[in-house]
Amino acid sequence: QVQLVESGGGLVQAGGSLRLSCAASGRTFYAMGWFRQAPGKEREFVAAINWRGDYADSVKDRFTISRDNAKNTVYLQMNSLKPEDTAVYYCAAKMSSWSRYHYDYDYWGQGTQVTVSS
After folding, report:
1. How far apart are CA 59 and CA 106, in angstroms?
2. How many CB atoms lie within 10 A of CB 55?
3. Of 28, 38, 42, 97, which has the fewest CB atoms closer than 10 Å, so is most exposed?
4. Given the DSSP bridges, would you call strands 31-37 and 44-49 parallel, antiparallel or unpaired?
């Protein structure tokens, strides 16, 4: 049974940092990604990685995605957080190359809340 379990969300002040983790079990994946969804908004791409990372323009130079294949885990280091980064963050995985489109992903985690106060 495939599972993606996120952790690391929480409440942080603007300018602060958080590190999200997503541990996969049941199989390994070629690509993994992070998406986020704020209240009343559509789910949007944040970052993805297979052998290199790709980022949404809104988080480039602030967020870093990485993976530890030995642990089957992907991370999202978020620095210089802004109130507009507030959302539920979802981990996703797929068996082929990374994509910026949520409908391309095969498996999803349950989400972790990130709240950035001003």
Report:
1. 24
2. 19
3. 42
4. antiparallel
